[in-house]
Amino acid sequence: MTTVLIVDDQPLQRFGFRMLLESQDDMTVVGEGGHGQDAVRMTSGLRPDVVLMDVRMPDMDGIEATRRIVASGSSARVLILTTFDLDEYAYAGLRAGASGFLIKDALPEELLSGIRAVATGDAVVAPRLTRRLLDTFAHQLPSGTGAEAASASADPAKHPLLSSLTDRELQILTVIGQGWTNTEIAARLHLAESTVKTHVGRILAKTGARDRVQAVILAYDTKLVRPS
């Protein structure tokens, strides 16, 4: 059973989500909140598997709430709801640690499959859309300072977060950052798809990335991949 916390400042929107989710045999709504402070407090107390998070809310928006939930070490996965696919809010949500985002006018089955995906540790953003988002808003990436930034710029593989990766893992992280799917990686690098999945799992474990989306962001942050 997947437990879900719904956070949206529109009561009618929350009601609609609750009706949809509770019509499913494998989902239950454990709570509802109207703003980001509710999200942080209720996530801590209720420990949901997934937080369905609106971004534009009063008092504390969904981006800051996501950042605080992730920083707390919570195992809850955040699924951001936004208005447009190439939206600065979607970008900011992923940067804050969300496991994906959905457009608010998504079909019911898309919302349900998205919740199921993030509950199992997957990410809900098409790889190429993640790449497009990061390319669009890459000017907002921190430039970094000091010797570490200079070293990473000269050789990203020497970045502390990447230093434990093998050459093959660095190669796969690079193409993940370029928007390749596991199927494409397997075909182009002549690997079994199961081997690719094993490599991706090791990359996430070694770097501490929560999911594939965060791995893409890591590839950008460490300059392993640069905006096109």
Largest sheet: 5 strands, parallel
As for the number of domains, it is 2
Question: In CATH, what is the homologous superfamily of the largest domain?
Answer: Response regulator
CATH class of the largest domain: Alpha Beta
- In DSSP terms (H or I, runs of 4 or more residues), the helix count works out at 11
**Beta-strand segment tally:** 5
Overall pLDDT metric: 88
Gyration radius, rounded: 18 Å
What is the terminal-to-terminal distance?
41 Å
The fraction of residues assigned to DSSP E strands is 5-15%
CATH architecture of the largest domain: 3-Layer(aba) Sandwich
Strand order of the largest sheet: 2-1-3-4-5
Extract low-pLDDT stretches: 143-152
> What is the third-level CATH name, the topology of the largest domain?
Rossmann fold
Shape: globular
Protein name: Response regulator transcription factor
Domain Response regulatory: 3-119
Modified residues (4-aspartylphosphate): 54
Keywords: DNA-binding, Phosphoprotein, Transcription, Transcription regulation
